[in-house]
Amino acid sequence: MSNNNNFIKQYNNEIYAKTKKYQKIYGFEIGKGEHDTWNNEADAFKHTFMQADLVIKLGITGSKLAGDWHELDGRLNNQPKSEENMDKWNNAVGREIGEEIKQEIKNKNYSNEEIDDLIAKKVMERMRAGKLITHPSDKRKYTGFAANIGDDIDLPQGKIFTAEEIGKLSTDDFQKFENYIHKQLKEFGVPREYQAKNMVSRGNLIWVDDYKRQDGTHVNGYYRRK
Prior knowledge:
By secondary structure, the chain is mainly alpha-helical. It is about 60% helix and about 5% strand.
């Protein structure tokens, strides 16, 4: 867990450094002191750039999970809803940019710095066109959430998603199960496969083998809570 935390901290520091770098190039608004990239254009740039970068490196599902995990952490620490809305809006625009760039650079040789420059250029085009939220007072609302938790979704009761399983979900399936996964994150966490197996051996999780429902539907094996 400490290695994961160190990686996240290092990555966040890299994105912050790139935000500062491109602020000097493009001159977008930035604050002063410890919270210089908070609730301003620099904040919007940072979130949008990060999600575009993650799409290119991890794919759309991995980037969305990473972004939403960050926002869930903010929610648990009493982040105002207006700030969460701003972040999620800009995260979504970043994913859109990432998908665009993946198509543009497909089968081409781009250096990491060239990709960063391309991301920054597209983020600034969106910002200057008014397509980013640069302050929580903006009245536009992010509406990208899937159905509310508790809506009818086709999952076995008590199912626990592993990180590997989430990474293999299609975009449509991730959106379908998004709030269920959020609820799992909050209440249980998202174990890796080896961690889930260890939990089974310790009696903290149960493994259910493949089976067929009465209607003939095949259900793949899965982990579930006791």
